[in-house]
Structures are given as structure tokens and as C-alpha cells.
């Protein structure tokens, strides 16, 4: 792999001007890497000539090895030089199966002031938008304790062939965002090029992609207002991680795992932030995609949602009216896709997208938490992600860098794919990005 390294502090404007790399070989994405340990130095192997050649002068590595933890190196990777482990002949397909786990969880959820008639879709919608535009919080009335045993439907995959024993005690737990389900990690069935399981199992990891609370085909859906809120999802996820680490789950033939890597997207990433704050030992590393400490949820996107059972009764028959789905392909596409993506994907995305719960939308799921987590954290967010880089591509590096404040004790890194929108694993650069995520993980495990 060709690696180009620059001292970020010496060139603070490079993040906003990737064209400075010259040679006509623009980077596919930018990786901002925190260096916590001394004495490590990467070689600068590119044959390109860089305008800022003084950054590669003798002694650069010596300076870098003594950087304080808060310092960054600015590293880019050219798409043409990325070594892919997915080359033909190097891949055994993952062995996957569907599993169900019963997880006990309890939490103190928000108690809402005025109980709703959950059989009236119009009343639910009016109440929701009245609440989100009410700065006084008058719609909240303390907390309410909820508990139960919840069924988590998941896809479990394990490596095969010569990859099986490498990292055989390591599991990646894949947690999707709002209006997706576990199928997003398999590329929605569109192409194996977007299948996270395939890349991870080739790198020797086991994977389990879970449906978050109330998603996928269930016979019982939790109350979408009173029960399905972020506090319960937080504790449920913690319990799930501990259960998976222990292994020995009745009837599932799942092993125990020495290491757990939490991989989230969007709301799933925000949930990972909460889990890391509440239980720093729940996972050993976090990969948070489509995420930053700055989130903007445009009102036009919110207005596109309505009760799923009414929007699409064929797909969501009998679903409680507090579970919502999107109504229009163009609206979803404009917020989830940007830059370089296959034009056939947004329609498939819309046709297969899942729901979000009204209670989930009103609870503080996207509120950020400062954690005491000390392990590796990687934030991976596209420069055109208008939900988590709302100030635009030029300001995105600074936006992502601020996210470091949520993990002040962690070995924190940032990857910013270029020409990529919010649903970054469904863009054309997904193979390179997923490969590089696993390259980053290889530095620690």
C-alpha cells in the first residue's frame, strides 16, 4: 500500500484542501490518525512529488514519535494503491445463519405528559411534531421504568477455510441506523461488494448483524412510544454484548469471544457512544460510521415519515402506528446518498427500508456522551454526509475532529471517505473503505 504522511499540525488547512497532494493522484479518502505510542514511524512510499516536501524531511519521524496524544497525522490513501484482500482466490465465502437471542433489559424511559391514542395516526404525527418544535420540553414528565425480555433477530457469520483460525476469538457486532435493519450490512442484497460480513470474515473475524429493537420480522413489537426509546436500547445493547462475550447461548452454538468490536451506523453509532459511556468494558473497540458529535436532522426529512402501516400496508401490515417509514424515494436519496453511488441503489434502499419508533425519535438517542473508554475508536464519515457534517465537505474534517472530545482517553482515529454521503457502505467506495477499516483494526488485534 502506498502511504502518504503529513504532520497535521504543521499543515492545518490540508484537510480542507486534498487537492494539495499533487501528481494528479487525488486520495479516495482522508484518515486522521491519533498516535498514542512513541517510536512508531510509517514510511512514505509514494513516488509522487509533494508541494509540501518539507513535511517529509529527515527527522519527521523523530518529531512524530514524540507527539502528544492529541496530535494528528494526516494520511491519505489512493484508490489505485489500496491492496484488497477480496482478490479472487483469497476469499472463502462466509458461513452465515439466522439466529434469535432473547435478551433481558430494563431502563428508565421518558414519561410523556399526555398519553396518546395509538390507534390514531394523525394524532400521533401532530403530537410528535409539536414535541420536536417545543423548546420547553413540556411533553416530558419525568421517567418511567420499563423492562422485559426482547427477541433480537440477527445474522451470524463465521470465517471459513484458511481464514477460520485467525482472530478466531474476535466478534464484530454490527448495529444499523434508523430506518435500516441488519440487511444493510449485507449491502441490501445488491452486491457482494457492499457485504461487510464478507470482508470481516476474510480478515478472520466472526460477525453478528443485529436488528435493533422493533426491526425486522417479529411477532411482537415493543410499544413504539412508551417502550422503544434510546434508554432501553442502550441497556439492551449492553446486555447483548455481555451475553455474546460469554457465549454458551442455549441452542445457538455460539462460542465465547475474547474481543468484541462494536460497529455502528448513524443511530447505531450514537448508541455505541452511549454504551461506551455507560459500560466502558462492554466492547474492546468501536467503529462508528456515519457519525460525528454534530448532528442535524432536517425538518424536511422528518416530515417525509408517517405511520408505516399506512404508508406501505403490504410491507408493514398491522404494525403499531407509532412505527414510521419514509414516503418518497427522492427525499430519502437526497439525505442518505451523495457523490459517487450506483443510481440503482436508492430505489432498492427505499423498497427495503425499515422503520423508526416515535419514542426513539423523541428520546435523547443522538445526544452525545463523554466517555471514559480507553481502547481504539474509529469514526468513519463521508465528506458529503449532510446529517453529520452539516457545515459542508470543507468543514467536515474539523467537525469530525471535534468528535474526539467524546472519547478523550481513547486511541482515537478518523476516516473521511471523499465523495460519499451518509449511508457510506452503500456507495461505490465501500470496498476500499471496509478494507481500510479492517487494516486499522489490524493495528490493535
Tell me, rounded to a whole number, the average pLDDT.
81
Topology, number of strands: 14
Q: Which superfamily, in CATH terms, is the homologous superfamily of the largest domain?
A: Alpha/Beta hydrolase fold, catalytic domain
Q: Which series of helices and strands comes N to C?
A: EEHEEHEEHEHEHEHEHEHHEHEHEH
User: What is the share of helical residues?
Assistant: 10-25%
**Which class of the largest domain in CATH terms?**
Alpha Beta
Overall shape: globular
CATH architecture verdict of the largest domain: 3-Layer(aba) Sandwich
Q: Please tally the helical runs, counting DSSP H or I stretches of 4 or more residues.
A: 12
Instruction: Domain count, please report it.
Output: 2
Give the radius of gyration.
22 Å
CATH topology of the largest domain: Rossmann fold
Stretches where pLDDT falls below 50 for ≥5 residues?
1-30, 32-89
Structural class: alpha/beta
| Spatial order of strands in the largest sheet | 1-3-2-14-13-9-8-6-7-5-4
Largest sheet: 11 strands, mixed
How widely separated are the two ends?
Answer: 19 Å
% residues in beta strands: 15-25%
Keywords:
12 helices; 11-stranded mixed sheet; 445 residues; globular; 2 domains; Rossmann fold; alpha/beta
Walkthrough of the structure:
23% of the residues lie in helices and 22% in strands. The chain is α/β, with parallel strands linked by helices and 445 residues long. It has 2 domains: 4-81, no CATH class; 95-110 and 148-441, 3-Layer(aba) Sandwich (Rossmann fold), CATH 3.40.50. An 11-stranded mixed sheet has the order 1-3-2-14-13-9-8-6-7-5-4, with helices on both faces. The relative contact order is 0.15.
Amino acid at each position: 500500500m502506498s502511504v502518504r504522511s503529513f504532520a497535521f499540525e504543521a499543515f492545518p488547512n490540508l484537510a480542507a484542501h486534498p487537492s494539495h497532494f499533487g501528481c494528479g493522484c487525488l486520495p479516495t479518502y482522508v484518515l486522521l490518525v491519533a498516535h498514542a505510542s512513541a517510536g512508531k514511524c510509517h514510511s512514505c512510499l509514494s513516488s509522487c512529488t509533494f508541494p509540501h516536501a518539507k513535511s517529509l524531511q529527515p527527522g519527521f519521524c523523530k518529531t512524530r514519535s514524540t507527539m502528544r496524544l492529541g496530535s494528528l497525522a494526516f494520511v491519505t490513501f489512493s484508490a489505485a494503491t489500496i491492496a484488497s484482500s477480496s482478490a479472487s482466490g483469497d476469499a472463502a465465502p462466509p458461513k452465515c445463519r439466522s439466529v434469535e437471542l432473547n435478551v433481558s433489559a430494563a431502563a428508565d424511559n421518558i414519561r410523556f405528559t399526555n398519553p396518546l391514542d395509538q390507534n390514531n395516526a394523525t394524532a400521533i404525527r401532530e403530537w410528535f411534531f409539536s414535541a420536536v418544535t417545543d423548546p420547553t420540553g413540556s411533553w416530558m414528565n419525568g421517567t418511567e421504568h420499563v423492562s422485559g425480555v426482547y427477541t433480537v433477530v440477527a445474522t451470524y457469520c463465521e470465517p471459513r477455510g484458511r481464514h477460520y483460525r485467525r482472530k478466531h476469538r474476535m466478534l464484530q457486532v454490527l448495529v444499523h441506523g434508523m430506518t435500516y435493519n441488519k440487511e444493510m450490512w449485507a449491502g441490501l442484497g445488491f452486491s457482494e461488494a457492499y457485504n461487510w460480513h464478507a470482508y470481516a470474515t476474510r480478515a478472520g473475524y466472526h460477525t453478528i448483524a443485529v436488528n435493533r429493537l422493533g426491526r425486522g420480522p417479529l411477532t411482537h413489537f415493543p410499544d413504539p412510544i412508551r417502550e422503544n426509546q434510546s434508554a432501553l436500547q442502550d441497556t439492551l445493547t449492553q446486555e447483548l454484548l455481555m451475553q455474546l462475550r460469554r457465549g454458551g447461548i442455549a441452542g445457538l452454538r455460539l462460542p465465547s469471544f475474547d474481543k468484541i468490536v462494536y460497529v455502528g451506523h448513524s443511530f447505531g453509532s450514537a448508541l455505541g457512544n452511549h454504551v461506551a459511556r455507560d459500560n466502558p468494558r462492554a466492547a474492546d473497540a468501536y467503529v462508528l460510521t456515519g457519525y460525528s458529535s454534530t448532528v442535524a436532522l432536517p425538518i424536511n426529512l422528518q416530515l417525509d415519515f408517517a405511520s408505516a402501516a399506512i404508508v406501505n400496508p403490504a410491507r408493514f401490515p398491522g404494525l403499531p402506528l407509532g412505527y414510521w417509514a419514509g414516503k418518497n424515494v427522492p427525499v430519502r436519496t437526497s439525505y442518505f446518498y451523495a457523490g459517487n453511488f450506483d443510481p440503482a441503489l436508492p430505489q432498492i434502499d427505499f423498497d427495503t427500508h425499515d422503520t423508526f419508533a416515535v419514542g426513539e425519535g423523541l428520546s435523547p438517542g443522538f445526544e452525545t456522551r463523554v466517555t471514559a473508554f480507553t481502547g481504539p475508536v474509529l469514526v468513519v464519515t463521508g465528506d458529503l454526509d449532510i446529517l453529520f457534517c452539516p457545515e459542508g465537505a470543507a468543514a467536515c474534517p474539523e467537525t469530525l475532529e471535534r468528535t474526539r472530545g467524546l472519547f478523550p482517553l481513547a486511541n482515537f482515529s478518523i476516516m473521511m471517505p471523499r465523495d460519499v454521503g451518509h449511508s457510506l457502505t452503500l456507495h461505490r467506495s465501500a470496498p476500499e473503505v471496509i478494507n481500510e477499516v479492517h487494516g486499522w483494526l489490524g493495528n490493535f488485534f
